[in-house]
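Write out this protein's structure.
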Amino acid sequence: MRSEDLVKLCRAALTLVAAFTFFSHLADAQVISGTERRPMAVAVGSNVHCAGYVQTSPISTDNRLVGAVGEADQFVYSQSDFVWVNAGANKGVKAGDVWSVVRPKGQVRTKWTSKSHLGFYVEEVGTIEIVRVRGDVSAARVKMSCANFLLGDLIVPFQERTAPMFADRPALDIFAEPTGKAMGRLFMARDHQEMVTREQIVYIDLGAEDNVRVGDYLTVFRPLGKGNILMGPDERINARSYGYESLTYKGGRFSNQAARKTGGEARGRVTNQREAKSGRPELRKVVGEMVILNVKERTATALITRTAQEIHTGDWVEVQ
């Protein structure tokens, strides 16, 4: 064998070894990636335990925050502070018990629903853990705070919640047709927001009475019957006889923004947007998607999961 052929053979062998090593590492990486892929919840932290809710059933006002270790120096309390509650051994409280701290904010009144009464809004402030029990009071440590604690806030038994898991879902379809299932309105968002996007909490007027459940996905949409929900241009913006040419240097009647003339020979008046829309079937604009986290009697708390554009209070929702 000639030396040139031997060199070529060696180079080919080295190329094969390098390729084998590369693909071996690639295969290993794929295996590692597969083993590390774990199911993930759509919501975590404050979006689970501090999402808030709107309910109709009365809330117990028996147990509340009545004091704090640092009350001589502060008025608000947060994580790791120690507070006092008016529930002790006389109510079966034990060290290690966890309670939710809530703050009812008032009756919900909104024009974004056809239901006569939705209930009252309850803000979820955080959780406390009992550390010392006396006869009729207990000391507790603030375990988690999503907002400042105030004396007088109510405490209710803690309920563990689990958010729905991410599922393999098709891409958001902005042309999705109606499903014919339960349909309602987004009537409020957390933190008084009027425009929301992904990972934000909202409240809708569909609840247990409408047979919606935790984990249900809903399409968020806006009817196109009246155009944009914000104040837009005059409906007659297209109604100009001679387009937008200069008043002094008129270059012709046929501006590229001039409207269509009516009639088969374009001898009639100009048409306008309102006339152009007349007679068409109902159309809608899909603006996003949400998943339900918590269901009450007449309402539900939901998380925005995907958006096609900004979402407003007042937008419509439909169960997928």
